[in-house]
TrEMBL record:
A GO MF label: RNA methyltransferase activity
Domain (SAM-dependent MTase RsmB/NOP-type) ranges: 158-506
Similarity field: Belongs to the class I-like SAM-binding methyltransferase superfamily. RsmB/NOP family.
A Pfam family matched in the record: NSUN5_fdxn-like
SUPFAM superfamilies on file: S-adenosyl-L-methionine-dependent methyltransferases (SSF53335)
E.C. designation(s): 2.1.1.311
GO BP term, example: rRNA base methylation
Keywords, alphabetical: Methyltransferase, RNA-binding, S-adenosyl-L-methionine, Transferase
Full protein name: 25S rRNA (Cytosine(2278)-C(5))-methyltransferase
Catalytic residues, chain numbering: C418 (nucleophile)
Top EC category: transferase
Binding site for S-adenosyl-L-methionine: E299, D331, D349
GO cellular component: nucleolus
Amino acid sequence: MAEFYVKAGRALQDILARRGSIKAITAQFGDDKGSARAQGNAKRILALVVNTLSFRSTLQAVLRKVDIATLEPKWFGTASPLNRIKGALPAPAPTLASCILLVLTHDLLFVTRGIQAAKAWPPRERLERHKARLHAEIVRIQLRMGKKNFEELRSGAEERQIAARIPRWCRVNTLRANTEEVIRSLTQLGWNQAETEQNDDAAIFTRSEYVPDVLAFHPRATSDLMRTELYRDGTLILQDLASCFPAAILDPLRDGQSEITAMDATSAPGNKTSHLSALMKGKGKVGLCHSNDQLIALERSPQRFITLQRLLERTGCLPRNHGNVHPQKTDFLSLDPEKFDSVQYMLLDPSCSGSGIVNRLDYLSGKDDEQDNLEEIDPLEKDKALASRLASLASLQEHMIRHAMKFPNLKRFTYSTCSIHEEENEKVVIKVLASEEARNGGWKLASRDEVLPSWPERGHASACKGDLQIANALVRCTPGGTLDTPPNSVHDGATNGFFVCCFVRKMS
Ligand SMILES: C[S@@+](CC[C@H](N)C(=O)[O-])C[C@H]1O[C@@H](n2cnc3c(N)ncnc32)[C@H](O)[C@@H]1O
């Protein structure tokens, strides 16, 4: 069992050194053979690591007061033999001994059965000598923070509640099958379609009223869905409802044109590209058209370009599968718009702070968790760091939109972010509307009746200088939706945080 804590400590060290996602890292430490026992082990390691991360601020505060590394240097100091275990990462990663100390302290303080390793294992034996002081310290923190119990000391409790309201949204890839066929297959597999806004049953799914071909499942259905052939062959795509808004709003076919050239300027991982491709139903070219050079979906990051290609292959979007998407590893900003005069429609979903994304585990290892420090972080410093990050993102976003506005025959393009910050959303829009490119190109916002008119949440008027018409033209999604639901009930109006609008050329 000592080995279990060493593996959990190693996984935690990799996570804190940002060597991959929490799930991927803990799966590696489960075992090598992939047996049922190994998978069970991976699950236990995942549970311990996630719990340790979610109590990390509290555990660190306790260990600052009861400084075990100094009290027990032989096992938890820098010279500890734990730091020489094969695979332990060197500095600047936190030491392996400190990571093992965190997982052990977690079990000592928060698990009724305590540490599950041989009593004589020195790290356990040395740590348990300080149990009374550690316990007294955590009680002191609990009281000082006005928490009713230890559970309330977890960070991210609010995020978990929000995430619990968001359905597991799935988009039917209509390049593979139509939605009625998919619903029939799902029914044969034991799922039932229901007409309800609120769902607390993993066997039930509903259809979105906002975007065709999008289904809402209970999050508990996720692993079963991922085991279906429908998921494996790219017929059913896990994609948040809000992330389906841009392609649905752009909808190039609604103009009734015969030849369509569209571009996804910032594509990876490729969910919106594949949605747009499906909406175009194989007609036209998603991407840019430049003499014989046909690029489709642009992505500048080489690593993410590989992910994009995989997704496009799996979802049947590539020409070799009779799809219409031509991916290209290119920086959108390096293009000369004049050379791409065939492009009429564009998705622009640039890099953003990602502050709207709630339903994933990784926030637990993120900077915010460190900043959520119980004693030492000056809130003003925290705000300053965020403000400067948002300012640099906003300036890049503004630059990308103004570049898009220079494409000579572009008729319409969407701008979207998965951010909740006005700095990346309304304020960017207001700025670009006043830009030279917008004035010269005749760019305006598409009005509410062209942009998901029935979606209730719209832009913040206060960030649009009080202009209600502009605010109404913008679509916003609050993470977890705006309605309260009972615990464990998902709501079909709940998504991740998102923002989208559509620019149209309206020459007077
Ligand atoms: C928010 S993600 C796009 C997500 C994607 N639309 C989807 O739904 O799957 C932004 C992507 O744009 C890429 N990117 C950022 N700036 C770019 C640029 N100037 N040219 C091309 N790609 C860019 C980033 O590498 C990243 O993969």
